[in-house]
Design a protein that fits this description.
With 443 residues, this protein is α/β, with parallel strands linked by helices. The chain has two domains: 135 residues, FAD/NAD(P)-binding domain, CATH 3.50.50.60; 196 residues, FAD/NAD(P)-binding domain, CATH 3.50.50.100. Helix content is 33%, strand content 24%. The radius of gyration is 24 Å and the shape is globular.
Amino acid sequence: MKKPHVVILGGGFGGLATAKSLRRAPVRVTLVDQSNHHLFQPLLYQVATSALTAPDIAAPLRKLLRKQENTQVLMARAVSIDPDARVVRLDQGELEYDYLVLATGMVNNYFGHPEWEAHAPGLKTLREALDVRSRVLRAYEAAERETDPERRKELLTFVLIGAGPTGVEMAGALREIAAETLAADFRTFDADKDVRVVLLEGTDRVLPAMHPESSRDALTSLKELGVEVHLETFAESVDAHGVYTADGMRIQAATVVWAAGLKASPLTEGLGAERDRAGRVKVEPDLTVPGRPEVYVLGDLISLEQDGEPLPGVAQTAIQSGKFAAEQIDAEVQDLPKRARFVYKDKGSMATIGRARAVAEVSSSRFSGFFAWMLWLVIHILFLVDFRNRIAVLMEWAYAYVTWRRSARVILDAPSRHRPALERDAILRSELTRSSERPAATD
């Protein structure tokens, strides 16, 4: 008898948890992802700020699943879903399924302004993290050559839009780079004094998903580091030279990072189900699509309330929902009782602002400072899925703690027309200046 075919779209926390939990189930599993690796997204900002390298937070999916004989990994892009035919169409070919698990996660949401993406990349993929790292390092390099004080000021201004965990952690890291890592590396400016890091947040506090006391502690740490925080401030427009806010403020900046909003993967549109404003699927209590009991939705694609609150779009939601979906599928295939509903167990939340600065909430307890920072370090090490990643990250963090240095400060991308406009201008002016200073040729 042919085994039921389970197709999992997405190799993130939810998709990987589903695949691993089906290792002994009497099913065939195909995991599809447009990348060949599982990515530990909570540490992307550390790649963007030169603390870690890309391989430190990524592990090949085939390596992680190689011992599962019932599982195949396909590197492909899912284009659309036909739930009536039970078919997923890929960029090349298609897959029929008996069960579908949708775990493709969220993408950056620029709220109707897709043109902002070129000037303000997000931090959802390795490509974006490496792009941000390149922009940051190139801004410093261009500032070293710049002779115009105003243009240098613009090059050394970094704007983060959105003060959730990504924006807060990135802002703190950028200030630490300026104050400790790069302070003695440049000759024409003082990185500690001249670098300006600006954090914009539309609500009335940073880390709005956490307890107000944690928000206050985080804000205090940010200000102590020298981060300029603007609350209840929305971005009105973003261009190659900075940001206009809704209240008319202009911030000249060569580097802008988007951490203000996310929306569901476009694949959710093909399910024919009701969705919320962010495109998340309004699922049944057992995480299936209404009228489609063979289709499960995971992680931050879920629109579902528990105890009057929406499920948080965090890694734990993805992991727990992935394990739940696998258990449900396994039970149905073996004609065993299934659970009526998914119950999320909140294991806490945390954010780091810098060295020995963090906030953490575990159960009803709240921590801040050094203890919270150590807790953050331990939790993130443990949740890395590959042993090699754990060792690499531990070694990098130990080196950085002892030396204050960041080892991943190498610019890998080749110069191109996609450089920020201000940097191209600085290079051109530098070349013209050198040319004008050369002595005239004589006979």
